[in-house]
């Protein structure tokens, strides 16, 4: 592990207390809703926000004792903050210049980095003349130019439109893979986190609520927020073998668990019926339709009942079943598609 | 926690912001009658501001203007004015920009009081400023005595004294303008520079100053214009010696008693300078 940090920031209406460990070459994403404290944590790592307690240690070096300009970090800001009065080349050369290199040497380093991110042709362009995707890459090159041991990215893709985002995301992934230091990135977008990070740390209300590989977090969410992010119905209950009691409802799951457990199933696995179906689904209950909205190509139906859930059905099914708010329906999900894991 | 059933609202970064509802055909709206209570004083006010300037132009001795402009006293006063105003502006830049930075970026106890003190020369009658300068920097003044005994320097009634008087009166214009620009500048650029390893001095020199340069230029021009027109503090502190401390405004005042036409010519020159300054600042300030 190269980065060990315990970040404690106390403010009048907010408290952050987060422990982070990031290995060299590892990319950790801090994921969480707005106001959870992700950016505060990142700023504390950078030295832009003071710690009320805790420590930041990088390769044995106590970073928390150093001001921001003395820390071996590189930071990419949400809106990049490229210096508007400098060309792309001089923006990237800024860091090496501050590290005491000559103008020529700094520009040589900058030119190499711009080349690496595919922007050699834009070297003399001012930030105002760059597209969003290009600015993002210049910001990354600028952060890498100081040869940081810790790379910090604050919502690196949030300012991009959907199309550019896709392309820049895969490029960013490649550049992060080539970086040998520790990387911490902040995002509220689960897709960015899943694609870019080796490990996710989910923060809610200033504390870590879940931690693990993207696949693990996606499959086994542990909070309502994470379940919503990854698009799963999530419940907490008491398990006994394959049976999990959630409120009044007894659900049958694919896995065997004993004691407090989470149960999750995808909204696509939930089937709706006008009348009680025969046979197949093991988990069946009666629900009232609370709302209907478009969701991509499908329709998302919100259900009230013994458990609140949402189901994704086709527009054709909405017409066939004559689904409308207030209607009583039967909801069913197969046991094989209902997953349980210890809470 | 028992459920997780509200979908995250889809975020669409590329979506255009909602347009404010502007009703169509707005240009065809029929306006009501203009209220005379407002229009009459407005026109009177405009006339009050413009007519004196027009009078200056009408009474100007256009035929003899070139020869009068070439008179040694006029040229001397003009040269002295331009030199002292420029030097005073330079002094204001060297001292005022760091002062503005201190007020905008460093929190220290009594900052509000200091900010108020900086603006005092702005509202102080210039003559009072001149008297105050005499009391401090005059031969018998607290600092003046020390300056004379230690360095043999005496400021009152010298060209350097003119610069001191002008700088004293004009510096608030620069400080206020630059401080405003500093407060308006996005401080996160400075944070970005810090994460790249820039010391605070480097941040100021390579990021902050370039970002607020328009404000510095505007402040310097205002400061220069104020210094050029300075009268009260100059005549009180530096006196009225042709070639040494007699700047344009002083020359205008003196000429008015002996040679009114010369006063008009000198005034025209100052008017021209003002118009040029206004024109050069048009985009930055006047229309803003």
CATH-derived architecture of one domain in chain B: Orthogonal Bundle
Main sheet specs of chain B: none
User: How many helices of chain A in DSSP terms?
Assistant: 9
CATH structural fold name of one domain in chain B: MetI-like fold
Main attributes?
heterodimer; A: 343 residues; alpha+beta; Rossmann fold; OB fold (Dihydrolipoamide Acetyltransferase, E2P); six-stranded mixed β-sheet; five-stranded antiparallel β-sheet; 26% helix; B: 288 residues; mainly alpha; MetI-like fold; globular; disordered N terminus
Description:
The complex is a heterodimer of chains A (343) and B (288). Chain A is 26% helix and 37% strand. Chain A is of the alpha+beta class and 343 residues long. Chain A has two domains: 3-228, P-loop containing nucleotide triphosphate hydrolases (Rossmann fold, 3-Layer(aba) Sandwich); 231-342, RNA polymerase II/Efflux pump adaptor protein, barrel-sandwich hybrid domain (OB fold (Dihydrolipoamide Acetyltransferase, E2P), Beta Barrel), CATH 2.40.50.100. In chain A, the strands form four sheets. A six-stranded mixed sheet of chain A has the order 6-7-8-3-9-10, with helices on both faces. Chain A has a five-stranded antiparallel sheet with strand order 13-17-14-15-16. In chain A, helix 3 crosses helix 4. Chain B is mainly α and 288 residues long. Chain B has a domain at 82-241: MetI-like (MetI-like fold, Orthogonal Bundle), CATH 1.10.3720. Chain B is built from twelve helices and no strands. Chain B has helices spanning 36-59, 65-69, 72-105, 111-123, 126-137, 142-151, 159-184, 188-195, 200-228, 232-237, 248-258, 260-286. The radius of gyration of chain B is 26 Å and the shape is globular. Chain B starts with 35 loop residues before the first helix and ends with a helix. The A-B interface holds A 46-48, 67-71, 73-75, 77, 81, 83-85, 94-95, 98-99, 142-143, 145-146, 152, 158-163, 165, 189, 221, 223-224, 227-229, 231-236, 246-247, 293, 295, 300, 302-303, 307-310 and B 1-8, 11-14, 186, 188-189, 191-200, 202, 206-207, 210-211, 213.
């Amino acid at each position: 592990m190269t980065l060990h940090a315990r970040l404690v920031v106390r403010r009048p209406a907010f408290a952050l207390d987060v422990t982070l460990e990031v290995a060299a070459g590892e990319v950790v994403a801090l994921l969480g809703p707005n106001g959870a404290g992700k950016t505060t944590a990142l700023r504390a790592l950078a030295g832009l926000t003071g710690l009320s307690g805790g420590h930041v240690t990088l390769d044995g070096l106590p970073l928390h004792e150093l001001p921001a300009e003395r820390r071996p970090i590189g930071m990419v800001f949400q809106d990049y903050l490229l210096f508007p009065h400098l060309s792309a080349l001089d923006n990237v050369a800024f860091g090496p210049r501050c590290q005491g290199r000559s103008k020529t040497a700094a520009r040589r380093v900058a030119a190499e980095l711009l080349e690496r991110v595919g922007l050699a042709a834009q070297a003399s362009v001012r930030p105002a003349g760059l597209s969003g995707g290009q600015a993002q890459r210049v910001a990354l090159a600028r952060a890498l130019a100081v040869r940081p041991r810790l790379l910090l990215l604050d919502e690196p893709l949030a300012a991009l439109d959907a199309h550019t985002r896709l392309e820049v995301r895969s490029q960013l992934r490649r550049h992060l893979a080539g970086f040998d230091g520790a990387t911490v990135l902040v995002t509220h977008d689960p897709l960015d986190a899943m694609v870019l990070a080796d490990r996710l740390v989910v923060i809610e209300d200033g504390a870590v609520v879940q931690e693990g590989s993207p696949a693990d977090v996606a499959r086994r969410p542990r909070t309502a927020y994470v379940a919503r992010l990854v698009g799963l119905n999530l419940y907490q209950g008491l398990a006994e073998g394959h049976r999990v009691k959630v409120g009044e409802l007894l659900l049958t799951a694919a896995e065997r668990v004993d004691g407090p457990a989470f149960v999750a199933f995808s909204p696509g696995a939930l089937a709706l019926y006008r009348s009680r179906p025969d046979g197949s689904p093991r988990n069946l209950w009666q629900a009232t339709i609370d709302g209907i909205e478009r969701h991509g190509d499908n329709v998302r139906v919100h259900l009230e009942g013994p458990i609140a859930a949402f189901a994704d059905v086709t527009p054709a099914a909405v017409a066939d079943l004559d689904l409308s708010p207030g209607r009583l329906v039967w909801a069913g999900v197969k046991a094989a598609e209902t997953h349980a894991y210890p809470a | 926690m028992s459920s997780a059933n509200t979908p995250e609202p889809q975020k669409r970064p590329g979506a255009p912001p909602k347009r404010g509802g502007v009703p169509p055909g707005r240009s065809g709206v029929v306006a009501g009658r203009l209220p005379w209570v407002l229009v009459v004083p407005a026109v009177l006010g405009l006339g009050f501001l413009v007519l004196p300037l027009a009078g200056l132009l009408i009474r100007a001795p256009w035929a003899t203007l070139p020869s009068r402009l070439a008179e040694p006293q006029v040229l001397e006063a003009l040269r002295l004015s331009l030199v002292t105003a420029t030097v005073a502006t330079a002094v204001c830049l060297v001292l005022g920009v760091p002062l503005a930075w201190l007020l905008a970026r460093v929190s220290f106890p009594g900052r509000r009081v200091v900010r108020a003190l900086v603006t005092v020369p702005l509202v102080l009658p210039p003559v009072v400023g001149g008297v105050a300068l005499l009391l401090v920097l005059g031969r018998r003044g607290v600092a003046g005595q020390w300056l004379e005994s230690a360095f043999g320097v005496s400021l009152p009634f010298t060209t350097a004294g003119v610069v001191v008087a002008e700088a004293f009166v004009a510096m608030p214009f620069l400080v206020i303008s630059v401080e405003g620009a500093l407060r308006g500048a996005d401080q996160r650029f400075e944070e970005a520079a810090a994460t790249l390893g820039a010391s605070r001095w480097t941040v100021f020199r390579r990021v902050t100053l370039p970002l607020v340069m328009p404000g510095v230029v505007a402040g310097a021009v205002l400061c220069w214009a104020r210094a050029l027109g300075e009268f009260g503090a100059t005549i009180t502190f530096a006196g009225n010696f042709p070639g040494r401390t007699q700047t344009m405004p002083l020359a205008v005042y003196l000429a008015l008693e002996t040679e009114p036409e010369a006063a008009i010519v000198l005034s025209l020159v100052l008017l021209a300078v003002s118009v040029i300054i206004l024109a050069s600042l048009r985009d930055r300030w006047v229309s803003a």
